[in-house]
UniProtKB/TrEMBL annotation:
PANTHER family according to UniProt: LEUCINE ZIPPER CONTAINING TRANSCRIPTION FACTOR LZF1 (PTHR13618), PROTEIN ROGDI HOMOLOG (PTHR13618:SF1)
Top-level taxon in the UniProt lineage: Eukaryota
Organism: Urocolius indicus
GO cellular component annotations of the record: RAVE complex; synaptic vesicle
Sequence similarity: Belongs to the rogdi family.
Protein name: Protein rogdi homolog
Localization annotation: Cytoplasmic vesicle, Secretory vesicle, Synaptic vesicle
Any single Pfam family the record assigns to this protein: Rogdi_lz
Length: 176
């Protein structure tokens, strides 16, 4: 999520810097269009930090997070890391293998930020049920600062757009 947010910020910077140093904007609408594109990238960056992705359990199982540990995690454990506002969250899922002969009604879980005990999924040719969920959070102070900076930058962009709109309407409707 942090990398995604950074990519959106880089795209916003690219939009702003992708002009010759001596370039002069011709119309207010040209600036408004640029500011809309920049604000879209900044909003996407902020949203990646404020709204974690909803993932299915098979998506978590196939992600690189489970494979990055040395020694490897046991096959009955899944992990998921995500950012939620100013916190880094770790969720550990303990799994129970469902036997093919089980009489339990298998109902695969959909996408969620946090899956509860009893959630079921199929991965590979095996069916699993979540037996326990453990979640821990750690506050990351600079993430809060980043969210504040995104909010302030979006407000400044909007103020610039408002001022340009006022002046553009003045010049467009000026009697000659």
């Amino acid at each position: 999520q942090i990398q995604d947010a950074r990519n959106h910020v880089n795209q916003a910077i690219y939009l702003l810097m992708n002009r010759d140093v001596n370039y002069q904007f011709k119309t207010g609408s040209e600036v408004l269009k640029l500011m809309d594109a920049v604000m879209l990238q900044l909003s996407r960056a902020r949203n990646r930090l404020t709204t974690p992705a909803t993932l299915t359990l098979p998506e978590i199982a196939s992600s690189g997070l489970t494979k990055m540990f040395t020694p490897a995690l046991p096959p009955d454990v899944l992990v998921n890391f995500y950012i939620n506002l100013n916190k880094l969250c770790l969720t550990v899922y303990q799994l129970h293998v469902l036997q093919p002969s089980t009489t339990k009604n298998f109902k695969p879980a959909g996408g969620s930020i946090l899956h509860n005990p009893g959630a079921m999924f199929e991965f590979g040719s095996q069916r699993y049920e979540v037996s326990h969920v453990h979640k821990v959070e750690c506050v990351v102070p600079w993430l809060n600062d980043a969210l504040v900076f995104f909010t302030v930058s979006l407000q400044l962009c909007q103020q610039l757009k408002d001022k340009i709109s006022v002046f553009s309407s003045y010049w467009n409707y000026r009697p000659y």
